[in-house]
Amino acid sequence: MIAKTAAFREIKLVAALVLSLLGCLAIADIAQAQSNTPASTPYVYQVDSINPGTRTTFSGSQNDTPQALMEAFMEAGRKEDWRKASGALDLSYLPVSEQAAQGPELARKLHSVLKRAMTIDWADIPDRPDAVDTTSSDKDPMAGTARRNLMLARVSTEDQSVSIRMHRLQVKGGEPMWFFASQTVENVPQLYEKFGPTKFERALPQWLRSPAFWTLAWWEVIAIPLVLLVALLAAAGTWVAIRAFCRSYGDTLPGRILAAMKAPAAILAFAGTFAIVRRIVFTFSGALNTLLDPLQTLLIVIAIAALFLAVIEAILDMVADSQIDDLGKPEHEADRNYYTTLSAIRRIIIVLLILLGIGIVLIQTNMTDTLGFSLLAGAGMFSLILAFAARKLLGDIMASMQIAFAKTARIGDAVDFNGEWCYVEKIGFTHLRLRTWDDRRIMAPVASFVQSSFENWTKQDASLLKLAHLRLDHRADVDALREEFAKFVEGEDGICDKESAKIQVVDHDATGMWLRLIARSPDPATGWDMHCRMREYMLAAAARLDAAAGNEPAPAYLPREREVRIDLANKD
Question: Residue 185: which of 326, 267, 86 has the closest Cα?
Fold first, then answer.
């Protein structure tokens, strides 16, 4: 019994050893198989085949990284080897039977689109198989992350925005490789329709289409000055035509509007002609478009905004020039408020148009994704310096808005500014335009009306008390002068409150006494003429009374030097 148990244990031990040996052999076979098969990576798109209809792909170092693929593709395009270049395209969206025929043509069109629709920044294209971006900030959520899909640029067609992408593919048992994504290749005909060469350009000789410098072809070097010349001629023609119309209309409202439109219309003609020629005749390369597109859009936006503002400005100036004299009258209180508010709204519209124009330029030119934004970001310190230098201008703009809304000085108001009697003609961003009584124009900084005091004669009531002073002899009969003054007040239309008119003795000295004549006028303009007539009338009245008084010691009105008589006859 014991012998049987021992034999059974030996059999079990041998069986265990055999099973262990078989397991080790199996593991070795698996390891051997894995060593002969490329490792699979999760950062790829697994596919059954790549372009089976062409059997043409780049190999080795030509497509193991995105940058290597772009370099190989652009080199094949430079040599116009489109069959080889088609190996960089993922043609999986096409039927297998059509891939060989359409591949080279799609490669040719994509090469043209890449040169014209975007600027290739080689530093931004990863040169690693896993496409890890090693240059981005650690705040970027994709920093240090391997990618299998890479967006190179985003371009806009007529009706949509299209991205140009690469992706990483791997066939089972093969090495991962980068290709232009099938979605991008599928959009190539649509992109080529917009960014491809025009019929005129395709008709040019081959030597004109050959490279010159800075990624430009010779035809671009020649075409740029010609396009600028055509645009300048269009601008000059627009200027001359509008000036001719201005002469025919004269100083009427249409004439003023046309005169204000000359400059913005010429700018719009320049930018519009430049855009049309670029769109129909020439399609420049991407590097050049990066500079031209923002400038072109900026000029068009500025011109349209300036045209809109020119019309408003001309209408308001025409109204102000025709009614500025009437606005100072008492019955036009509401009009002064209206035109001042309208002037403030105009400045708000200007600011909003500027902000809107900046937004349109940023959106239309995709400056956040292009070189333009990098330039703006790189000029951060310059922007701070500029903002510091412009703080006075910004302060004046806010001050002008404060004046307009607080209505401390309204269009049409009569003010006393630095001893000058003026009417407010215009409230601008940085200056007020004042018209003096003798038709001079004073350009006063808005800060002067905010930081210091001034007299506004029509803020609450346009009527003014006008004063005139006379120096008369001590012996003048004031009651007789009051009777003459009452006659003047009764017959004077420039005095609106006859009950408040009076004559007063306000001072005296060794040479005589001072009389003050007071009368209220309905508005400053009427008051000026009235108080001049008042002074003239009372001087004439005093002269008549003085002449009628005869010799001493009768009352004298006009001042005389005091005579001192010394009686020496009784002197011892």
Answer: 86
Q: Of all helices (H) and strands (E), which one includes residue 55? A: none
Distance, CA of 432 to CA of 420 (rounded, Å): 14
Which of 34-43, 405-414, 521-530 shows the lowest per-residue confidence on average (mean pLDDT)? Answer: 34-43
Please state which of the ranges 18-32, 305-319, 406-420 shows the lowest mean pLDDT.
18-32
Asked if residue 152 lies in contact with residue 191, where contact means CB atoms within 8 angstroms, the answer is no
Contact 84, 56 (CB under 8 A): yes
Distance CA 39, CA 51 (A): 22
Q: Please answer whether residues 444 and 417 qualify as being in contact, where contact means their C-beta atoms are separated by less than 8 angstroms.
A: yes
Sheet of 455-456, strands arranged across: 441-445, 431-436, 420-427, 414-417, 455-456
Concatenating the DSSP letter of every residue in 91-152 gives -TTS-HHHHHHHHHHHHHHHHHHHHHH----GGGS--STT---SSS-TTSTTTT---SEEEE
- pLDDT at residue 265, as a whole number: 87
Instruction: Report yes or no: 150 and 166 within 8 Å, Cβ to Cβ.
Output: yes
Residues 299 and 447 in one domain: yes
- The structural domain count of the chain equals 3
Angle separating helix axes 391-406 and 333-364, nearest 10 degrees: 140
* Residues 346 and 429 occupy one common structural domain: yes
105 vs 414, residue with greater confidence = 105
Instruction: Examine the pLDDT at 563 and tell me if it is beyond 50.
Output: no
pTM above 0.70, yes or no: no
- Secondary structure (DSSP) of 299-315: HHHHHHHHHHHHHHHHH
84 and 139 Cβ atoms separated by less than 8 Å: no
DSSP 8-state class, residue 562 = P
Give the least confident one: 23-27, 34-38, 261-265, 426-430: 34-38
The letter for the amino acid at 284 is F
Residue 477: which domain range?
464-548
Kindly give, in sequence order, each residue whose CB lies less than 8 Å from that of residue 444, ignoring residues fewer than 6 positions away. 417, 431, 432, 434
- CA 440/CA 434 separation, integer angstroms: 8
For residue 416, CA distances in Å to 413, 423, 461 come to 10, 9, 15
Give me the CATH number covering residue 474.
3.30.70.100
CA distance 150 to 165: 6
- Structural contact between residues 538 and 468, judged by C-beta atoms closer than 8 angstroms: yes
Distance CA 524, CA 462 (A): 7
pLDDT band with cut points at 50, 70 and 90 for residue 25: low
The number of angstroms, rounded, from the C-alpha of 246 to the middle of its chain's C-alpha atoms is: 29
3-class DSSP state of 265: helix
| Residues 399 and 258 occupy one common structural domain | yes
DSSP E strands, 307-458: 414-417, 420-427, 431-436, 441-445, 455-456
